[in-house]
Structure formats: C-alpha cells, structure tokens
Amino acid sequence: MSAIIAGTYNSRDTGGIPLTAGSSTRAGVLYRSDALAGTTGNGVDTLAASPIGTIVDFRSDLEKTGAPNRIGSAREFAVVELPLLQGSFTGMPSAAGLDEAAMRAAFARLPSLADIYVQMLGSAAETFAEVARLVARPSDETHGGVLVHCTAGKDRTGVAVALLLDAAGADRGAVIADYVLSETNLAGEWAELMLARLKAWGVPLIPAITDLVTATPPEAIKAAFAWLDERGGSAEYLRGGGLSDADLSALRERIAG
Fold first, then answer.
1. Using one digit for the tens of pLDDT, what is the confidence trace for 177-227?
2. What domains, with CATH codes, occur in the chain?
3. Which strand (E) or helix (H) includes residue 116?
4. Distance (Å, rounded) from C-alpha 243 to C-alpha 238?
5. What is the predicted pLDDT for the residue at 106?
6. What is the pLDDT of residue 107?
7. At what angle do helices 125-136 and 156-167 cross, to 10 degrees?
8. Which residues contact 36 (CB under 8 A, 6 or more apart)?
9. Greatest C-alpha distance within the chain
C-alpha cells in the first residue's frame, strides 16, 4: 500500500475496515501516519485538499525538535501535542560510557513491543480518551478528519488507532491486519535510515532493537487487546480515561456511521 501523503511512508486513511455489524469504517474520519517531517510539496497539497482538520502528534519534544512537521500554510490545522514516551526512541537507554558488552547487555533487557503497549495503555488512558474526543467532536465539519502520528506511525499511533477502531466496532482481525501493515510500509528506505541513525549513535543492532524500530508483529497488538479485554474492553477503557457515553456514541457514529 502506498502512502497517501507524499514524503511519508506509513500514511493512510482507516476508512474501509470491516465492521463486526457489517459494512465498513467511514473514509475521511481517522487517518494515521509516520512523522510529517519529510512531506513533499505534493504531500502538503494533499493535506490542504483533504478532510483533515486536526493533527495529533504523539512525539516527544526531542523528536519534534529533530524532525519538525511540514504541513504547509495553505490552510490552518489544529495541531494537538500529546507526547507519549513509551514507543519513542527517547525512551531507549543511553549507550554513553558503556563498552560493547555492557551496551549489548543493557539493550538486551529492553521490553518487548507487547510490554511497551501494555505499559502505554496502563499510563495513557486520558491521552487516548482525548484523541477519541477529538475524533468524536470535530470543531470544523468541513475538515473534521483527524490524523494521528508519531515517528514511525506504528507503535503509539498503532495502539491509538487499534483502540479507537475496536471501540467503534471494527472487526478485530481487520484491525490487527491494519496494524501489521505498518511493517511492510516502513520496510526498505525508512527502516534503513532509522537503523543507520541508531548505529551512528552507538546502538547495537541486535534483534531486540531492530524489532522495536521496524516490526509490527500481530502478537504485540493482540497482547494489548488481551489487556484491554481483561479490563472490560476498549470502550470501557476509554470511559475510564474520561470519555463520556455521549462522546463514545459520537465516536462510533463518526467512525462506523
């Protein structure tokens, strides 16, 4: 699948995903992407012509400083910054002052993607509920679409999108397939650039690292869903984060129609 915003690798509209009750999710409502730092002129034009009115950025200040988004000035977007440390490169241990053996030992103790997702859900219910609210209650009906992104668009973004789609009644198998798609989209140039950057920082490219940076194994998002199910499911989780029943109904109406 090609990115819909030129200059990105992992951008897409989540419309067209099957719903458990039949039909499919609506196009033009919830978008996902990697960072918009490399957006080309054509990509900027695509954004300006799209239904997107709100851009949610999960990146840390350090990530944003190193790769500021390029969204153009043809029209205004509401940019909402909701930084999440879990899933970011800034959450990795420092390699400074470590010899190779100590460095490899430190990075070998990194949590798995499944662990990171569960930690994220455990600490960010209010953040995810705010994203759900932004989707449910667009301030601009003409540009009511919401684009969520982080650096890769696979972990913080992947969890957020899976959570919202699941709460709206999307078929879980299809949601998992959408999550897994990110690994294919990021393979090649993006993955090579990111791994080269980590290598230059002195980070050993052991499997635990390369998986964190480039992989989207179905087991990881399934672990997130299992954690949610143990606590009543995605909708109940969002309620716990402060999403009202009215906003939950509006979210379902916006995504599922």
1. 999 999 999 999 999 999 999 888 888 888 888 999 999 999 999 999 999
2. 12-246 (3.90.190.10)
3. helix 113-123
4. 6
5. 61
6. 62
7. 60
8. 5, 7, 8, 43, 47, 55, 69, 70, 71, 149
9. 56
